[in-house]
Specification:
It is a single chain. The protein has 12 helices and no strands. It has 243 residues and is mainly alpha-helical. Helix 4 packs antiparallel against helix 6, helix 6 runs antiparallel to helix 11 and helix 9 packs antiparallel against helix 12. It is elongated, with a radius of gyration of 27 Å. The protein starts with a helix and ends in an 8-residue tail after the last helix.
């Protein structure tokens, strides 16, 4: 009997406190302003998320390269190339910042898909690095003992190697540790390049040009493969990075 009364009271309370059916709900929702974000606005929005110190460090690398060209008596090419992996490290650090702060899942719920966000960042960092490298190559080529295409090859190869290895590391190491592994990889490539360049002229001998070309081409292919896998995982809604 008590159970019956309890059920009756529950039913009555539900009826009394039930919310009334909404009136003119659709009309009201249509009057609410909906923020519009076109692709151009989305691109510039992503640009604003880049920290100022990223630009400062990039400019510092550029100025350091200019200093080498200005004050170094010899070995301008290999000394400059030994600095460039750290330019890639700056980009990698900014690119992986959302994973460090566990923001990947939140970005998956945004209006633009995670793959579009990653693509926008690829374009931003790729354009900035391309412009900085263009300036550095133009400055180094004025003092380099090699012709332009060889100078480009010697300067681009450490960057592509570092970028490809960094993307591979980011996708296969824990979030909080990936930046440290990327820093270690950048330092290793930089030190190895510096030691090899300072050991003798044979490092840049014409006989080794096929080796340089192979390293550059293999790095570019591996970089494109890692980028493609990253975007493919994002489109599938999979968690891109290891906890």
């Amino acid at each position: 009997m008590k159970q019956m009364r309890k059920k009756d009271w529950s039913h009555e309370l539900t009826l009394v406190f039930a919310a009334p059916a909404p009136k003119r709900k659709e009309a009201f929702l249509k009057t609410m302003p909906v923020p519009q974000l076109d692709p151009r606005g989305f691109f510039f929005t992503q640009l604003q998320y880049i920290r100022k110190r990223t630009w400062i460090f990039s400019i510092f690398i550029l100025l350091a390269c200019i200093g080498i060209v200005r004050f170094a008596s010899d070995g301008v090419c290999w000394k400059t190339a030994a600095l460039l992996p750290f330019l890639t490290l700056i980009t990698t650090t900014e690119f992986a910042r959302s994973t460090q702060w566990n923001m990947v899942e939140l970005e998956m719920s945004c209006k633009y898909s995670l793959s579009q966000i990653l693509m926008a960042r690829f374009l931003i960092f790729g354009t900035v690095d391309f412009l900085i490298l263009g300036v550095i190559i133009g400055i180094v080529s004025t003092q380099s003992e090699f012709y332009l295409l060889r100078t480009v090859l010697y300067l681009i190869t450490p960057c592509t190697m570092t970028a490809a290895l960094s993307l591979w590391i980011i996708r296969r190491t824990p979030r909080n540790e990936s930046i440290y592994f990327c820093a270690a990889a950048s330092a290793f490539i930089s030190i190895a390049h510096d030691l090899a360049g300072s050991s003798g002229a044979y490092f840049y001998h014409p006989d080794l040009l096929p080796v340089w070309e192979f390293l550059c081409l293999a790095s570019v292919c591996f970089l494109l493969k890692q980028g493609k896998e990253l975007l493919s995982s994002a489109r599938k809604g999979q968690l891109l990075f290891i906890h």
